[in-house]
Amino acid sequence: MNKTTIYYDSKEFPILGRVYVALSQKGLCSLTLPAHPVESFFNRILTTFQPHFFTQNAEPFQDLYRQLADHLAGRLRHFNIPLDLRGTPFQLQVWEALGAIPFGETWSYGDVARYIGRPKAVRAVGQANHHNPVPIVVPCHRVIGAKGDLVGYGSGLPLKEKLLAMERKNRDLLLKSE
Description:
There is one protein chain. The chain is α/β, with parallel strands linked by helices. The protein folds into two domains: about 5-70, Double Stranded RNA Binding Domain (2-Layer Sandwich), CATH 3.30.160; about 90-175, Winged helix-like DNA-binding domain superfamily/Winged helix DNA-binding domain (Arc Repressor Mutant, subunit A, Orthogonal Bundle), CATH 1.10.10. The protein is built from six helices and six strands. Strand 2 (about 15-25) and strand 3 form a beta hairpin. The longest helix has 21 residues, at about 155-175.
């Protein structure tokens, strides 16, 4: 029998509020933003991973917390943490594509669909984007509507707008420092 252990924790961040995070032996598997009930965080972990042990422990998350704080302060463009994403092959393909969207830039759902070679799958891309288990780390907030409008962010459009504004403001500073 598989004795899967999932660690979880929560922490308050500027811009975001309190986030809940979960980590398997393979990597970060969930990051839930405050707009979602904490019960949905726990239910998703229990149904997706069916852990044998599910325990609160802040220690395994210290590197993630540092990177998340640096990202929100505009000092970090790319996260460098292992992930354990569970989804359909299509969802995994979309989530991987989201990582290709440069810091401070946006793509439309159609751009993502074309990037993965499925130009007619725009709505399916939207659904995969909506089910991203680790927002911010996998930057689903960088996906916008075809006309450039902010649409479809499960944690609320005000947060999406704040995240994009922070990234745009800091994009040029980060490029100069590299």
